[in-house]
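Please, structure for the following, as tokens.
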Amino acid sequence: MSPFIYCLNTSTIRTTPLLDKIRIAGQAGYDAIEPWNDEITEYLDQGGTMAELKQALVGAGLRVVSVIALHGWITADGPAHEQALEECRRRMAQAAELESPHIVASPPREVVDLAHAGKRFGELLGLADELGATPSMEFLGFVDGVNNLADALTIARFTGDRRATVVADVFHMIRGGGSVDDLLLLKGSELACFHINDVPAKPDPRTQTDADRVMVGDGIADLTRVIKNLRAIDYHGPISLELFNRDLWTKDPLEVVRKGLERIRALAEE
């Protein structure tokens, strides 16, 4: 039995149509998929249906474990906040219709008060009672504010809600100036989804962008230690291959995702 749920984040083969992403992920042997709200909305706007998406998932033998993402929910006030929450409701309902247990809650670029963010995150968790998909707090290594796992965890724990979790990512842990050992701050039950990728030696990892991410095993991140740390905190959830590498977008998507899964399995099942 696999120690983790092997998942494909659809950004890894972003230029591939959504139904093809689902088919390819299933063909490659993944357990799950992690799509983006924007691509789901685009698919629906072009005449696709949720029924077709769900049928494709069943046919590929996949489940949705997370959807990306909620925005604008921390910093907006007044009518703008209500508008942001309405969009969050729409996105959460979309995720719930695909039976996703989680949806990623992203931070803004600017510095925020963590207690205020915690209150707002609690508000999002409250929406899950009516909508079904539970938000999970994300940190982004390249923003000025919530750019490390400790801050994301502070926000989640502030709520006092047992459902509060975070999303962690190899790239963001390193980009934000932290280390893969930051995972040891967590209990396994506090991690909803783990994004795996690798970082090149150049440019300086603390100046890199999403597009600099490279295939698992092609960079300098200590991925063996990452897996060791995930085991240490007793995490058995999704490991999601998340890349934004434009060179990979020009290659055969099936070959890309197969290579990713082979390398993840080599790390996780050694």
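DSSP finds ten helices and nine strands in the chain. The first helix runs from residue 18 to 28.
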